[in-house]
Automatic annotation (TrEMBL):
It comes from the Bacteria. This is Uncharacterized protein.
Length: 81
């Protein structure tokens, strides 16, 4: 039977993870969406101006920003522990 309060004494977060989660929970969730969109826009601009290497580098930032946004949302919804 599942534990209703989602607490498992065998799987507690360490002090570093707990501190990081407390700080990231303070950030607005849409910050990560705007960062992803901004990196895509910057990548498009750089591609248009002919700076292909930088365009590809900055364009790859979108996925990590979105993943960080999901992490941020999970911490806010589920909490740290």
């Amino acid at each position: 039977m599942a534990n209703p309060d989602n607490s498992n004494p065998e799987h507690k977060e360490g002090p570093v993870a707990k501190t990081i989660e407390e700080q990231t929970a303070k950030l607005p969730s849409d910050l990560f969406l705007w960062a992803a969109l901004g990196s895509m826009g910057a990548s498009l601009y750089l591609q248009y101006t002919g700076d292909r290497d930088r365009s590809l580098f900055i364009g790859q930032w979108a996925a990590p920003f979105l993943i960080l946004g999901l992490y941020n949302k999970l911490v806010k919804v589920e909490g740290s522990d």
